Structures are given as C-alpha cells and as structure tokens.
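Review box. Two proteins, two foldings.
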Amino acid sequence: MAEPSPLMIQSLEKGLAVLESFRAHASLTLQEIARENGITMGSAQRVAYTLEQGGYLYKDPRTKRYSVTVKAVGLGYSYLYRQPLFQHAHAVLHQVNQECGEIVNLGVPDDQDNMVFVMRVAPARHIPEYMPVGTRIPCVASASGRALWALLPPAELDRKLRSVARIKHTPRSTTDIATLRAFIDEARRDQYAYADEEFYAADLNVAAVVHDDKGMPMGALNISVPKPRWSLERARGELGPLVIRAARAISKHS
C-alpha cells in the first residue's frame, strides 16, 4: 500500500468522507457517523460539529440526528454551471425532448462505476421517477454506463465486469458476465447501448457517448421511455439513431 502523501490534509479528507456518507442516509447520529466512516466517536463529534458550524449539517435538537443542509448543494454548483459543455448540452436535451416527447438525461461517470445524472429534461404529460441531479445508477445496469464501457480496452472491461457488484435491482436485471459482455459488444458495434428494465421496473433506456473537446469520452446522453408504451424494438429503431445524433451534436460543440 502506498504511503500517504504529506500533502494530504487528513482532517479535510475525513470531513468530506462524512459528508459523502449522508448520500445514502437522510440523517445520522454521531454513532452512525462514526460507524459509517470507520472513525472514533470523538473524531465523529469534531467533524460533525465543524460541519454544523459551517452550515453544511443541521443537528436536530430533539433527536440529536444530523442531516445535510441546502448549503451542501452549492458544493457542486461550479461543476454544473461553469462547464461550457453542459450549457450546450442543455439546449440539445431540450431539442431531443421536443422531438421524441420523452425523458432525456445527461450523465457522467464517477470513480465508483456509477453514472451520475447531472441534467434531466422531462415531458409535461406525466410525472417521471424522482431523479434529482446527483442521482447515481450503476454503470452495469444503465444504458449510459454500458455505452461508456463499450469504449474500454478488453482487459479493463473484463476487470470491471468481474469486480463490479452485479445486483438484481429488478427481476430483469442482468447479472451474468457473458450476457453483459454481449450487450456491451453490441453497443460497441451499434454506437449506442440499451437497458431494458435493468434498474427501474417498466423503464427502457438507450444512450450514446458524449466526447469532450479532446475526443475523450466524458459522459452519455440517455433517453428513458416507459413500457409497455414503448417496446424494445421500437425504442432501438426510433431512439437509437436519435440518441447517437444528439450525442454527436453535444460533442461537436464541446
């Protein structure tokens, strides 16, 4: 194991880790903060107090449970607002939404094999699944993630498929490595990927990769449609070409 860098500020690292731990919890006690982060109660107390004083955590005076405040949303503001690529993508997502009348998303990968949705345009005629900015979906269970994984070297793809958690989120979730590899090979050939009720029931989605100004893959544009109003065959036939064209339009202006 590599020695920790002398440049690392461990207290800052610990504070950021505590904030991250609230991603999966609405609120946490000091004991839960300590357990989630593998730190002592004293350390958890100091970090929680510091974050509370900074306005990032709120402590309920009755239950003594901590929760994240709206100030934490600002931590991602610069990333979302200052990216020129996202500003252009916003217009393209709206155009695609107008063309197909369905939900259009833009997602980027994190370092834990998830796709993080950073932009979403939904039609007005129905209420979609609640997916606020920052929602994470495993790459292996999403069209966006599969589209990106289709660009990986074979050895790296094989490593990811063997190491990633393959969970049955729905009865249709694919957990077999050979089948997943076949889906990704298909995405490489067709230049778009699809996922049929892999993470949400009755949700069908297709996605194509968006590249940055250096030609490197940076995310994926995704169109999500409901079943049974859309069949897999119809979605692939109508939305596959659309999502490729839209992803290229974003990439061209990156």
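Next protein.
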Amino acid sequence: MPDQQNALICGVSVKAIRHWRRGDRRDARGTRRRKRDCPRCDGRDLATASYAYLLGLYLGDGHIARCRKEVFRLDIYCSDDWPGLIKAAADVMAAVLPGHSIGSRQRSGCTVVFALSKHMPCLFPQHGPGMKHTRDIELMAWQREIVDQYTQEFVRGLIQSDGCRSINRVRRPLKDGDRWYEYPRYTFCNESVDIRRLFTDALDRLGIAWKRMNRKTISVARRDAVARLDEFVGPKY
C-alpha cells in the first residue's frame, strides 16, 4: 500500500509513515531511535571470517577518522594496480557492515574504499589519535578469539595490504662466471612493532617459517613456507 494511502487511513503525515516503516520514528523524548546494528553494543551477528580479513586490511593500510558528529569513516587504501583487491575490500566491508553504504574515492595511484558507521571504534578498538606505529596496538580478547579461529584470513589481510609475493633474484659469483637463480618469497613491511608481532605470531600458529629481513620487514622464503602461503594468500590481482 502506498505511503500516501496509509497516511490518509491513519490520519498522520506521509513523513510519519515513512519514519514508522523505516524504524527510525522519534520516541517520547523527541529523539530518534538508534538502529541496533552493532555486534559489540547490540549483539548483532558478526561475519567473523570476513572480520578477520578486514582487520588485517585495517592494520596494514587502513585508517579511521571522525567525519561528522558521532559518525566515523573506515578507509582502506588499495593500489590501482590491484583491482581485485579493491573489490575484495568492498565485499568484505559489506559483509562485516551489512546495511551500510560502501563507497570509494580516487586518490593519486590508489583507490580508497570506505564505509561509514557510528560503531567503527567498537569494531576496531585499535583506533586512536596519531599513526598506528606511534601507539600500542593490542587485540581485545574477543578479537584474539576470532584471529585464532581465522588465522589464515587475518594473515591474508595483512599481506594483501602491507605485503606482497615477489620473485627474488640472487647472483652467485663463480669461477666460470656469475650464476643467477630465483625463487618466490613473501614479504610484509610495517613500521609498527606490535603489528609485525601480530603477523609473526599468526605465522607461528600456522607453522610457517619466517625471518626478519630488516628493521621493519618480515620475509617468508622457504619453499614449504611459500607453498603454504600460496594455498590461501597468493599474489595480488
């Protein structure tokens, strides 16, 4: 039945009918009823596997900012070289934040995938002032449970945001001339000591060998370890 017809039957305005239908009618105090759509505040089901992947993307290349009163914007920065990653970021945001508008905006060399919600700090309590590597990054108990259960998704999010799969070429000088050989490896580079620790702890749980390449880079280069990551990460696309 059209809203106009309902309004005539009920003797109220069309605007009131629309508020009732959407569930945002004002209560007796004149304030709008809050949508109960936060997994932490309201107990809504959370797509935990998707959340583990999104958490990895956020810790690697994500940012949360207050864009207006009580509303926060989650930004995930994705290189334009990897359109598959841009789509994956949008899809996982839609799974974790159903009913929210997912958008994107262009920046020099990258696409920023974003979503708006009042409850971003609930879902990502690591949010705070300043850059992530300038403050402590620790997972809450409920986040650790998700990451322990979906460690592969978490690692995939970290690598696809702040890591890569590449071919390393090595020159070995010999008497009869230089010999070159190459092998695939994964690297993860992040300024935050805490985020690097979360990454290596996750690798340890999966039984994947790693080593520190330099001050801020973790390398996975053993043949069996690379093959293990290839099963659920693979190169960006």
